[in-house]
Specification:
Blueprint: H1 7-24, H2 28-34, H3 39-47, H4 66-79, H5 81-100, H6 103-114, E1 119-122, E2 138-142, E3 145-156, E4 163-169, E5 179-185, E6 191-196, E7 207-218, E8 222-223, H7 229-266, H8 271-299, H9 305-330, H10 340-348, H11 358-369
Parallel strand pairs: 1-4
Antiparallel strand pairs: 2-3, 3-7, 4-5, 5-8, 6-7
Helix pairs in contact: 1-4, 4-5, 4-7, 4-8, 5-6, 5-7, 7-8, 7-9, 7-10, 8-9, 9-10, 9-11
Length: about 375
């Protein structure tokens, strides 16, 4: 088995690493204090091909594949997890449009997202987070327009996204059947931003509720076939789980590096500290292989749902443990506001929740183990 990266993968990883070191590491604390990542950061990421890594070059993307995306996501998250989550969601939206959009939708949105405009993923609702079958947002066809009514919750950068992929119920079928998805442009009448969540971590990434009150979009804004929304969501989330696993790896790596630097400064002769560092490095190395394996399968067009869930559960829980252990190595200073480990602990916690909780990942894995 060849674990060597190809030239494109190395180029994307190195571009992400260089940008993260030069532009994100020095500014991450500032972004958190301001509770915002400036738009110029995403334009700069777009210039480096990092906002649409898996989108074909013909549509303005890098066409570099999922392995390159995983590597880039870890590099950006190591420097600033808030920037990484916005990058992750926009990449996911671009891939969804590239995979399911018609020619006009692809031509309109993929190049714009690749250039640094933001895409939002409006799936979750209160009571319909892990289970989209409980969705209450509805879309009714009136002539040549769809009229969408409902509320969405916990939408990353839903207030600043140029385009939202919005899921709504278009049929009376129970559960996940009868869901469709639509492209809703920022500023569409009836689309409003509700509560901005006051979060523990990822504070520079906005998380908001959305209100859709008689939002009218052209019939042409239906993404994919009517009733195919659940299939589109599951495809997107499977791929998104590779991104979140990679994000958690980056956060955990930052915590390990801070703990290692502290140990080197304070003297690293304590065997207990050495063993903590060894365990942390081993967890991250194992998690990285799971994430890259899932990424390789997705890129190769092979089934990867099980591997994506394994990678997400193991990587996010492992990164959480690594951040905890890093705090143990550094001591009280690690929990002071502004310390890398303080931010890492707060940022990594939600990785075990969004895009499918750890419990949901275990449900997916168990179904494969049991052959269901």
């Amino acid at each position: 088995m060849d674990f060597a990266l190809n030239d494109i993968q190395r180029r994307i990883r190195d571009a992400a690493r260089a940008f993260a070191e030069a532009e994100l590491v020095p500014r991450a604390a500032e972004f958190e204090a301001d509770e915002a990542v400036p738009p110029d950061v995403f334009r700069a990421l777009g210039e480096r091909g990092l906002m649409a890594v898996g989108v074909p070059e013909a549509l303005g993307g890098s066409g570099a594949g999922t392995v390159a995306y995983s590597l880039a996501m870890s590099e950006v998250a190591r420097a600033c997890a808030s920037t990484a989550v916005t990058m992750a969601v926009t990449n996911m939206v671009g891939e969804v449009i590239a995979a399911f959009g018609d020619d006009a939708q692809k031509a309109e949105w993929c190049p714009r997202l690749a250039a640094g405009e933001l895409g939002g993923f409006a799936l979750s609702e209160v009571g319909a987070g892990s289970d989209p079958g409980g969705m209450r947002t509805r879309a009714v066809l009136e002539g040549d327009e769809w009229v969408i009514d409902g509320t969405k919750q916990w939408i990353s950068h839903g207030d600043t996204a140029s385009v939202l992929v919005v899921w709504a119920r278009t049929e009376d079928a129970p559960g996940p059947r009868g869901l469709s998805c639509f492209l809703v442009e920022k500023g569409t009448p009836g689309l409003g931003v509700a509560k901005h969540e006051d979060k523990m971590g990822l504070r520079a990434s906005h998380t908001v509720g959305l209100e859709l009150d008689g939002v009218r979009v052209p019939k042409a804004n239906l993404l994919g076939e009517r009733g195919s929304g659940f299939r589109i969501a599951m495809m997107a989330l499977d791929g998104g789980r590779i991104g979140i696993a990679s994000q958690a790896l980056g956060i955990g790596t930052a915590a390990l590096e801070a703990a290692r630097a502290h140990a080197a400064t304070e003297g690293d002769r304590d065997q207990a500290v050495q063993w903590r560092l060894a365990d942390m490095a081993t967890r991250l190395a194992a998690a990285r292989q799971l994430a890259l394996r899932a990424a390789f399968l997705k890129q190769a067009g092979e089934p990867f749902s099980r591997e994506a869930s394994m990678a997400k559960a193991f990587s996010t829980e492992g990164a959480w443990e690594v951040c905890n252990q890093a705090a143990e190595v550094v001591g009280d200073a690690a929990l002071e506001r502004g310390h890398v480990i303080d931010r890492a602990l707060r940022d990594v916690r939600v990785s075990m929740i969004y895009e499918g909780t750890s419990e949901v990942q275990r449900v997916v894995i168990a179904r494969h183990v049991l052959g269901r």
